[in-house]
Fold these 2 entries.
Entry 1:
Amino acid sequence: MSQATTSLLRRGHDLARPAVQLRILNDDTETSVPSFTSQISSAGLHPLRPLTIATLQVNLGKQCNQACKHCHVDAGPDRTEMMSQEVMQHCLDAVDVSGITTVDITGGAPEMHPHFRWFVDELRRRNVTVMVRCNLTIIVANPKYADLPEYYAHHRVHVVSSLPHYDASLTDRQRGRGVYEDSITALKMLNAVGYGQNESELLLDLVYNPPGALLPGPQQALEQDFRRILRDRHGIEFTSLHCITNMPISRFLDYLRESGNYVDYMEKLVAAFNPAAAASVMCRSLVSVGWDGVLYDCDFNQMLELPVRSSSRTIAQFSHEQLLKRTIVVGNHCYGCTAGSGSSCGGQLVVDPSA
Amino acid sequence: MYYDSKDLKKFGDIGRFQPELAEKFFEWYGAVFAEGALTQREKALIALAVAHAVQCPYCIDAYTSETMKLGCTEAMMMEAVHVSAAIRGGSSLVHGVQMMNKVDKEMM
C-alpha cells in the first residue's frame, strides 16, 4: 500500500470534487445498493429529524501535519482553509444562546489553528465540555505543541485520539510512516499529566478505524485487546476505545476504488444496515460548522458540501429553534454510520447485534 | 475444480433444495461461532487455520476478512496458517511410525 502524501485537491484528482463523489455514491448501476432514503423509510425513520442539539462540532480547517490514507476531510500539510476568528466568535455566540453542552473541535489538526487556544479558553470560560480530536502526532511535531498535554489537562479537555491499531505497521500504513511511534510518545505524555488513568477526570479516548476495506469488529473485544497490549508493551492507559467505520468518501473512497474494493465495501455496509443504529446516529443530536461558517448535519455532509436544510444556514444565523425543525440531509454515504453496531464520531452506537 | 468468489454470497441460498436441514445448519453454525469459552477471535483464527487445512477458498476469503475485522494482525493470521500446515505436515510424518512398525515386523 503506497502512502498518500498530498491531498486529492493538490493532485487535481476528480474525487476532490464533492459532486463527483456524490455521483459515484448515488450511481446504482455500479452497485446494487438501495438508496439510503428507501432503507430508513422501511425502518420508519424517514424523514430523519433531530432529537436535540447538544453538541456543536466545529471544524477549524483542513490543515494537518499528517496525510492519512483514509481521511474524509482530504486534510494535509498542503491545505490552507482555516476558520476566521470572526466565525469562531459566532460559534461562541451560538453557545451563549443555545442549550449546547459540548463543543467537539476537529480539523485537520485543530491545534495548528492560530486562534485554537483562544477558542478553547473562551469555551471553557462558558463552562461547556470541550472535546478535541487530536491526532497525537501534533504533540511531538514541533516544540511549540509540546505543552498541549498540560494545556489540555488545565482546561479539562476531553481528548479523542486516533490510533487505528496497536500494531505499528497497520497504523503506519494508514496514517504515514512513523505515526505509531510518535503516537505512543504522545500518549505517554498525556498519561504523564493524568490523562486516561483509572478514575481520572481527564478523559483520553482512542479511536479505532479498520486499516482497510473492512467493517470494525465488536468494540468491547477490541477495547480489551487495545488495553492489554498498550499496557503490556508501553505502559499506556486510556479511558475508552471508539470503533468508527470508514466513510466511503474522499480519500477512503479513492482507496476503495483504486484497490477494487468499492462495490464489495458498499455491499458490506448495506448488508450490515441496522435500524437501531440508524435511530441513534450522531446527526440527531449535533450540528456541524465548517471553516467558512456554513452549518451541516455532520462532518461527513460537510465534506460532501451538503448544508443543513434550514433557514439557519450559517453559524452567524444560528437558531436552535429553527435547526430543531430541520430534516436531516441523507445520502448513500450514511450507510457508513448505520452498519452493524453503528458508528458516528463517538464510536459504536448500539450493543453489537452479533454478540 | 473451479471456484467463483461471488458464489460465497450465495451460500445463504443453500436451503433452496432442502430448507429444513439448511436452517438447522445455520442455527448451529451461528451458535458455534458465538462468544463462549473461546472468544469470537479465537474461534475465527481456528476457522482460518482449518480453512487452509481443508483448502476451501470460500472459507479462506471469509475468515481472512473476519479475523481482520476482529482486530487480528497479519502475524497472528499467518501463525494460524502455520499451525494448520504444521499439523498437516506432522500428520503425514507421524504415519512414518506405522511404516517403521511394518518394517520392524517384516525385516530381519
Note: Chain A has a mean pLDDT of 93.
Entry 2:
Amino acid sequence: MSEGKLKITINGIEAACEKDETILQVAKRLGVRIPTLCHDDRLEPYGGCRLCLVHIKGVARPLSACTTPVADNMAVTTENDTIRKIRKTIVELLLSNHPNDCMRCEKSGDCTLQDLSYEYGVDGSRLEGERWDLPVREANPFIRYEPNKCILCGRCVRICNEVVMAGTIDLTGRGFYARPDTAFGRPRTLANCEFCGQCVSTCPTGALTDKKSMGRGRACEMKKVRTTCGYCGTGCNLDLNVRDGRVVKVTSAYDAPVNHGNLCIKGRYGYDFIHSFERIKSPLIRKGVKFVTASWDEALEVMASRFKALLKKYGPDAVGAFSSARCTNEENFLLAKWVRTSLGSNNVDNCARV
Amino acid sequence: MAGLATSLGAGAATNSLAQMPEIDTLFLFGSNPTEAHPIVSIYLKKALRNGARLIVGDPRLTWMAKRADVWLNLRPGSNIALMNGLIHVILKNGWENREFIERRTEGFEELREKVRGYDLKKVERLTGVSGDRITEAARLYSHADKAMIVYGLGVTEHRTGTENAMAIANLALVCGHIGRPSTGIMALRGQNNVQGASDLGPAPHILPGYQPIANPDVRAKFEKAWGVPVSPEAGLKSVEMLDKACEGKFKGLFILGEDPAQTDPNVHEVRRALQSLEFLVVQDLFHTETTKYAHVILPGASFAEKDGTFTNGERRIQRVRKAIEPLSGMAEWQVISKLSNLMGYPMTYRHPSEIMDEIAALTPIYGGISYERLERESLQWPCPTKDHPGTKTLYSDLFSRPGGLARFVALDHKGPGEVPDREYPFVLITGRIREHYNNGSMTGKVPGIVELVPEELLEMNPLDAKRLKIRDGDTVRVSSRRGEITVKAKITERSQKGNVFLTFHFRNALSNLLTSEYRDPITGTPEYKSCAVKIEK
C-alpha cells in the first residue's frame, strides 16, 4: 500500500482509500450500495436526507456516509436492524406529504423515492398529516415542476447554484412552507433560467420532469442508446431514449467521461430536428427549376455519370468535395478517400473554420 | 489550428477538460464558454470556485469577464498586439521561465527583439486596454503554478487567426506554462467534430493524421493500401474551389453537410460561385440556402441514425451509436461507398468499424483505436498502438516538431481587415448564443428554443443607443459595404461602446451578408469577428 493511504472495512470487506474520501465514495467503489436521496456525485456532500446513515464501530450514533470522511481502521456496517428502521421511518415521513400517484406519475420506474418505498415496504399510510396542495408550474417550454412531489433534498437548488452557477432557483420559505422556487415565484424565462434541465436531471422524484417527453413513455419502455452529442465540440455523451423508433427524450449518465451527466439546453432539449417534418426524406434531382423526387439508385447513377463526364471533359482539378465537421470521422475519411481515389485529385476541404 | 501546429507541432488542445478544476490561473481569450460551450464552462466554474484567478481577453463583457480579476477589453482584432504587450511586460520584469526557454524552445531572440517594440504606450494605443490591466494580467499569468489558456473562435476568426494562435503559444512558452497537467493551451472547437474532420484528412495538403501529401513515403503507404496513385499536388482549399468556380475553371462539387451559402462570410460571392458550377451535389438534413443551388440533393442521416465516432476538442475519440434507422434509408458512409463503386473504385465496408480499422492502419495517431476498445475505455489521441492508453497531456517531454523543440514566432500587429470609419462607425462582432447553433437548421426545429429566442437581436451599448436615439426593441437597419439586414436592438452593457454583436443563427437576418471578405491567408478562416457597419433607425 502506498504512503498516505488508509485502510477501512465496510461490512467486513477491506478497502484501501485516500484520506479525503467519504465512506459513501469508498462503498461505491467496492460495490456496496448505501441508499441516498440528497446525494449526487456532481454535487458537494450535503447530509440532508439522513438515508445514508451507517454504523461505525465505536461510535454511539449512526453517521451519514456521504459527509463522513474515512479514518484509518474504521469499521463500517451499512445495514442492521436499527439502521433499517431509521431508513424506513425516513421514507414514511417523506411519504406523509407526498401524493401517492405513482400509477400516473411521469417518473414511475425511474424514481428513487418509489424504489425506496419498495425496498423498505412503505406505502405512505402509516403517518397522516397535513399535505401540500400546490399547483403544477409549467409556464415554460421545457421544465415541469410539481411542488407537491418535492421532498426538499435540495439537489435542484444545489446543481443550479454549485454546478451551473445560474442562480435560478433556491429554497424559499421555512419549515412546512419551504420549497425550491424561482425568485418571487416568477415563471422561468431566459431572464432567470438557462433551461439546461440540470435540475430535472438530478431530481430523485417526479417533482421536476421534462415537459417535452411527458406521456411519451416511461423509463422501462425506453431503449437507451449511448452516443455523443452532435452540437458543439465538447463531446458530451448522451443517452438517446428511444421508443417505437423515435427519439423521445435525452438523458445522460454519470459515468460519461466528459460531462458526467451534465448537459446544456441544446444537448438535453435540442433533439426535435431528428424527427422534424422538414427533413429531406429522399434524393431530389433538379429538372429545370424544379426538384423531383428520385430513388437512391437514380440519384447515385446521375452523380456517378456526371462526375465521370466532368472528369473526362475538364480533368481531376475541376472537381472536388467539401467535407463536414458535423459528420463522423469515418465519413470524413471516406469522402477524402473518394476524392483521392475516384476523382484523382486532392481537392477536398472541410468546414472546420466556421 | 495551423497556429498551434507551427509553434508546438500538433494542431490540438494540449490538455484535458477534466484537468480544468485544478487550474490556479485561467486565461480565457476570445471565448464565451457559458454561451458557446456550457459544459466546458462547468469545469471552468469549478476552477473559479476552487479559487482560481481569472484573466479574460474579450471585447465583450461576458459572464466570465464580469467575474474576472482582470478584464482585457481589447479592440476586436488587436490580439497580437495584446500578446506582444503581455510578453513585453513579462520580459521587462524578468518574469519569464528562462530554464524552459533554453531547454525546450527555439527562436527566442527574434521574439525578444520583436516585442521590445511593444511597450505599454503602444499596446494601449493599439488595443485600447489600459497599461495597468496588461501589467496585472502579465503578473498573474507568469506567477501562476497551473496556468491554462483557454481560447475560442474570437482568436481564430480573424484574418490573423493563425498568427493569433501562435501569439498565444508564444506567451505560454515564455512562461513555460505547457506540458503539465492543468497547464497548457486549450482551443475550444465550435462544431462537434472539428477535431475529427481536421484529423482525418479532408484537407488539400494532408492525408489522414496530418501526414503531408508532399512526403513520398506517406503517399507510398496510402497508394499501397488503396491500390491507386495518390496525386502529389496539394489540392484546392474550399475558398479556392469557389473562387475558381467563379472564374469558370472549377466545375463539379460534392458538399457534405455544409451550408456555405449562409455561414460563409460575404455570401453573395459564395452564391455566385455555386451558381457557376456545372454540377453540384449537396447532402444535408434540411433544405438550406446551399441546397437551392444543387443539381442533386441527397438526404443526410442525423447522428442518431448511424454508427461512427466523433473526436472532441481534447482529442477524445468517442462512439456515435445508431439509435434509429436512417430515415431516408442510407447513412452517408453507405452513400459514399455506393458512389465510389459506381465510379469504378470498389468500397466494400459492411460497418463503420471497418472504416475505423483502415484509419487505424494508416494513421499513426489513431493507430490504437478500434470500436472494440472504445466499448471498454475512453481514449485520447495520440494513441499509436493497441496497448497504448492514450494521451491526456501533450508535450510533457518533447514537442512534436523537428528536434522536439517548440518554436517562438515573432509577429507584428496587423489589425482587422476592415476598421470603422466615418461612414461605417461600428465594429460588428458575430458569434453564438447558448440556445441556438450555427445556421439554426437544427435548433430552429426545436419548438421550445424557438419560443424562447424567436429572432435575431443586435446587441449594442446603452451610450451608443442613446446617441442614436434607439430604444430596446426598436427595429434598426444594420448595413456594411456588402449588404444590409433589419433586426431588433437589444441594449446591453455586454457590448462595449463602438461595438455591436449579432449571431448567425437566423435565416431571415443573415449576418453574413454583412461580414467582410477578409480571410486568414493560411487556413482560409474568414474574419467573422470584425467588420465595419453602420446602424440606422
Note: The longest strand of chain B covers residues 484-491.
